[in-house]
Amino acid sequence: MAAAAQEAIHEHDHHEESFVSKYIFSYDHKMIGKQFLLAAIFMGLVGMMLSVFFRIQLAWPGESSDFLNMFLGDRWAPDGILNQDMYLGLVTIHGTIMVFFVLTGGLSGTFSNVLIPLQLGARDMASGFINMMSAWLFNISSVIMLVSLFVESGPAMSGWTVYPPLSALPQAVSGSGLGMTLWLISLTIFIASSLIGSLNYISTIVNLRTKGMKMTRMPLTIWAFLVTAIVGVLSFPVLLSAALLLFMDRVLGTSFYLSDIIVGGEMLDNVGGSPILYQHLFWFLGHPEVYIVLLPALGISSEIISTNSRKPIFGYRAMIGSLLAIGFLSFIVWAHHMFVSGMDPFLGSVFVFTTLLIAIPSAVKVFNYLTTLWRGSIVFTPAMLFAIGLVSTFISGGVTGIILADSALDIQVHDTYFVVAHFHVVMGLSAIFGMFAGVYHWFPKMYGRMMNSRLGYAHFWTTIVSGYGVFLPMHFVGIGGTPRRYYDNSIFDTFNPTAGEMILDLNIIITVFAIIGAFGQVFFFFNFFYSIFRGPKAPLNPWRSNTLEWTTPTALPGHGNWPGELPTVHRWPYDYSKPGAEEDFIPQTVPLKEGEEEH
Amino acid sequence: MGNKLVIILVIIFGVLAIAQLVRVSELTAKATKRKEEEIPENENKFNANMMLIFMVALYASFIWLMLKYGYVDLGPAASAHGQEIDWLFNLNWVIIIAVFFLTNTLLFVFAWKYSRKPGVKAYYYAHNNKLEMVWTVIPAAVLSVIIIFGLQTWNSATEKAGAEYEDIEIFAYQFAWTARYSGMNNDLGKFDYKLTTAENPYGIMTKENIERSLSLMKVGEPGQSGVEMIEEKLNDRSVILSAKERKDLETELGRKERMSRLLEAMSITYADSLDELANDDVIVEDSLVLLKGQKYNFSFRSKDVIHSAFFPHFRAQMNTVPGLTTYFKFQPIYSTDDMKRKLNNPEFEYALLCNKICGGSHYRMKMSIKVLEPEEYLDWQKTKSTYDGTPWIKGNEEDLLEYYQSIASRVEEN
């Protein structure tokens, strides 16, 4: 009775929602998820544009481009030629936006919000208010980051890792002035957003699972979001402290990271600090961050591959185990970014060992995906295409990690384009594919309409072809010894013109594919926005899936998700094509038949 | 302006074209009663076939890239440890390419082969502990091999340099490099950044340099004020200072007083033996010249921000960190001429590049490196003088040449 009364009140509330409380300061986890997604799509568009700008410079250095002048103006692209300081600004903000705003906020923020309550059978997050705060802090930090692009002295220009002393000294590069201050403020707010969001995800998963939803019956998406949130809660505060100390060095004259420096003809009196300290603090977040980016994508693809192969995910428990193992190991590998930083070589060898261990759970995941596909009955929805693309790029990006983790080889390839290629295949392709897969798969639940699948195919095939087209050649640029963050590679002409020519050839191939890839995203943008308003109405369970989000009585659930009682769970989420069942899927709400084993 | 218009028009027409495509697809869907969530058989088949086509294209382009751009004219490793690194790289490369082909092939072939077929139900297969054990243990075993070989190479590349190594200091600053050779005594002079002046740009520690810095800090020089001048100015009642000017002067005074105290302490603890260390050092600013076969222990320091000394042809790299001296050692085994022959490229030269973002002109921060045969090296040495202005080479040249030749021939034998 009490529940029904509560429900009535709830329904009543629902009708009184104003535009502001429904769309802007919403407490509803689905709306907040959509807010994260829209902000991330916008930030992704900006990040992609920035990359096209600097790719043009790399392929056609010194050539005038109206396109650059049109966007960057006479301040940063006089006569259509990119300014060399702004080149660094572009790569810095591209990296920051993509890693934090698109792949952390966008991926984990969107899908944790949309899916955690729906797949667990909860009415909303543990705290709707904190959830709203998280979304708005994210928006505020996005705006500040974008504003920093318009500062006269330019945005932060010291790379997305913002290593001091470069980032601490405006005399060293102009972007380390106001641009860097805004960067630090934006990131501080972002970290706050991410932290409170993650705490909310964890408490929701621990406390608000519906009846029968044991931990071992949770979909792998939820497991991935849980591990991601825990990793985030443990690592982001360390970045916050790194940023605060950097802020103090810049503003209050402390010497945490500064020592023995003469810059711009001025002898600084900072003595005793260590720039290496910053690197340790930064990468203590920075490496787990890679998995914060990747794990949700892996969770999403597990779900999608199982559903669309019409088969249970192979080795459910091993998949959970490998998520936990990756989450744990991600904390003890950070110094593999610092093999040539001047750190004690013995410490380096410890990190070689721990880093290469991560390959084991990653390999388990890949083989489990392959076995899930084996003897399946695969339906190539756009989401499934992207999930398969994710597995391919996860392999291709993962294997080059083995070279980089090997400290002896890292001596040569460290900070070359080989590294750039490696982490872009993992994050720029694999994790982004996970995000696209998630959008195509759960769009019907988010907007109550279907996206166009043919545009989805076109989007996938142009994206994967141009994605590999960009990053496969880039490995060879790196093997040739080309340092990253070079405005152009003309320096090669002074000691090996043949190599210079080959690098330029490869750079042209890369840029052409980057431009094709950027245009390929038009398929997605159009499809996404068109379908929100004009897409065909979604059925209740379009992908014939087992998880709880497809059991809501309306395709687009209202606030509270299930107007009546919450569903009860009787089985794991992967009963696809189970022998003895009529249909090739059995939703989690269907009780076990007599004598039926769970799995 | 015209081009801008074209760019905008292209984007608009692109969007319109897609809109029309969607319209067509919607109309046909309506006509055939196709539902968006149901993927028709022909489309599923199309995507399945595309998986195979894509796989073949991926492999073909990968192989083409390998053949055409495999080493991007980098050449064989020109250092002893570099050869080990290249061997290790090749071993790893073979392993990862095998894994890349194997797993990608399984992925795309499975995707193609097990695409939905009418009447065929998927095989319910939830787990198999044995199988999972196999693909946990095999990667673990392969990785052990990689780790063992990797750490061997790493340890030998990073172990402490012995007495036979010649010390060279590489000094990095925005945006160039300077080399300081340790001279005939193979001991580098000490340095301190506080000693940096126009006359002593590398902050080398000698009695004279300390005294000069101390006097500059206290008294100042034309165009620059020292402690005494600032004090005078602050105490001068006839000069009216704004609050900001006063504050700036006080800050500067505090800074200079602190620095001069440190310099005084340095001058008290200074020992004359340090002069000897510094005086026979040789500073070279245009290019780094090395003797083929000589083992070098490089120490690195930075004046301003972090740079990275990257010697791509020698497979050597180490960050240069302000406030911290870092080290890397290697033995060049091919002279510049050897390498020109090997690459069949008469324009080839070795280079030291900056490989850590360090500011706007990062991409131009280079020093050329020459690895010379004994005779050429000795000739070059004879043109250089030491820090105190005496010739580098003291003593019998013939003996030295013989010694250099014995070093170079060690490499030839290998």
TrEMBL record, chain A:
Molecular function as annotated in GO: cytochrome-c oxidase activity; heme binding
Location in or out of the cell: Membrane
One Pfam family linked to the record: COX1
A single GO BP: aerobic respiration
PROSITE patterns given in the database record: COX1, COX1_CUB
InterPro entries: Cyt_c_oxase-like_su1_dom, Cyt_c_oxase-like_su1_sf, Cyt_C_Oxase_1, Cyt_c_Oxase_su1_BS
Protein known as: Cytochrome c oxidase subunit I
UniProtKB/TrEMBL annotation, chain B:
Alphabetical keyword list: Electron transport, Membrane, Respiratory chain, Translocase, Transmembrane, Transmembrane helix, Transport
Pfam families per record: COX2_TM
Transmembrane segments: 6-25, 46-67, 87-112, 133-154
Family: Belongs to the cytochrome c oxidase subunit 2 family.
Molecular function (Gene Ontology), one example: cytochrome-c oxidase activity
Record's protein name: cytochrome-c oxidase
UniProt keyword annotation of Translocase present: yes
GO biological process, one term: ATP synthesis coupled electron transport
